[in-house]
Amino acid sequence: MKNQLVKFIKKRRKVLGLTQMELADRAGVGLRFIRDIEQGKETLRLDKINQVLELFGHIMAPVPQSKETDDES
Amino acid sequence: MKNQLVKFIKKRRKVLGLTQMELADRAGVGLRFIRDIEQGKETLRLDKINQVLELFGHIMAPVPQSKETDDES
DNA sequence: CATAATTATACCTCTTAGGGTATAAACATA
DNA sequence: TATGTTTATACCCTAAGAGGTATAATTATG
Question: In chain B, what are the domain boundaries?
């Protein structure tokens, strides 16, 4: 599966009913960064991504390419 | 667990008996980048990391913070 | 429909990641 | 010990990521 990050962020944000701006504020990143994530930009910085994922109790880690998202945790 | 990436890269590289330089060449990244990864630098670019992980059939994806590495796949 | 809220796109600036190179340190092995 | 190999640290330069802002497009909502 490709771009699990995009799907994950979008889904989680919707679940919490947050706007991109609210998410950006809570994560302490710029609004533009949230947009870049959700647009599938691949040249993002890892620390910034993790900064956002932390809100959802997640972190970026190496997983087998084939494996489907096992989280929903 | 923190920095699964560092552990993963170091372990995989050792298993294949590659030097940092060899890994850099095969992944198509600079030697400095491999070193930055293994030194735990957190401000790395996601696309570059994935470029390296691809050699091992892996990719960066969001996982629960608490979950231990389940790969070894 | 009109209006407001949310998201997307574009431009500018500043900071820094990534690559290269050189040197030093650590780690082997004889 | 000395020698060669691998890894770490430090420097410079270029390209681009991240943030801000403004504007357009999209999506609700009445």
Answer: 4-56
- A19-57 pLDDT, tens digit each: 999 999 999 999 999 999 999 999 999 999 999 999 999
Domain over B4-56 is classified CATH 1.10.260.40: yes
Single-letter residue type at A4 = Q
Contact (Cβ atoms closer than 8 angstroms) between residue A40 and residue A3: yes
Question: From residue B67, how far is each of A5, A41, A70, A72, B32 by CA, in Å?
Answer: 17, 26, 11, 12, 30
pLDDT at B64 over 50: yes
The ipTM estimated for the assembled molecules is 0.91
Positions 12-41 of B with beta carbon below 7 A from strand D are 13, 19-21, 32, 35, 38-39
